[in-house]
Fold this protein.
Amino acid sequence: MPSKKDILDLHFMDARYKLIDLAAFLDRVERHPGEADFRLEGLKKALPILLSDQPGRAKAVLEALSDHSTSPAEKATIQYAYGAPQG
Amino acid sequence: MKYIEPHAHMVSRTTDDYEKLALAGCAALCEPAFWAGFDRSSPAGFHDYYRQLTEYEPKRAARYGIPHFCWLCINPKEAEDAGFAREVMAIIPEFLDKPTVLGIGEIGLNKNTKSELAIFEEHVQMALDRDLPILIHTPHLEDKLKGTRLILDALGSFPKLDRGKVIIDHVEEHTVNLVLEQGYWAGMTLYPESKCTPNRAIDMLETTDSDRLWLNSACDWGVSDPLAVVKCGFEMKRRKHTPEQIEKVLYDNPRRFLSQSKNFKLP
């Protein structure tokens, strides 16, 4: 089984790149005019999970970005998904 | 690297991809019926599509020595119009005896609506009536968790269903254990942006029961990679999985599930 150092050797640069890209995305949204929407709010709600000291961060981020309603919808008004729950 | 691609939409790929798959070691490929990127205008459109899946694609794959199999259904996106969906479902039995048809799929939910759910359940009954395996699509992004729960609840209302003959695809970290704990198979899809990365899929392999898991690319008309499964195999190697462990996930697991269909025959 690989060690922590092995995993860092394999994946640290990729994680670093993704973290910088995420930070740049937040800067970019802020720099442009107009109002953001529920998608940014959803992302910001999920971000603190990354700093949790508990395992299951990926699961928790996905759950934070999920629709938790339980009843089937009456009908579909769109065919696509947004990536974050509305409301 | 010997592997099976259990979920690829080759109707939307050029023949170059079959060559790439063959060079990479693909031993068999399975293609579920899916949404073409637009809503078909009539049941006749689906009849032609099923002919393409059962006649043309196996011939195209055979030029590169790859056995091609398919699943049939009306996909969840086009199941919102239940009347239309039932007209299409009436066509399916004509094709179920074709020699490369494995079962019913990829059925499931898209926006988690009542119509989608009704058509999903009718497909499950069609599969049960004929003792066919089932391949299930779970919704995208924020809809996946709710959709997976609705699917599991619906499946639970079929007491005679053999859960070992059902694979629930496109699982992610928040749905994989929901699926596995209820005795179904779970598919991890290596697809950019909306589904898993190879490393997240390997994480799930390492932290869950991997006997009922498979990997797939679900490559289609979108930005996607038909070689995603074999690339994940290489990533497993980098993470010190043994050749036996890699072959188990990439070949043995899908072969074991797919062999439950009488039409799944490898040369």
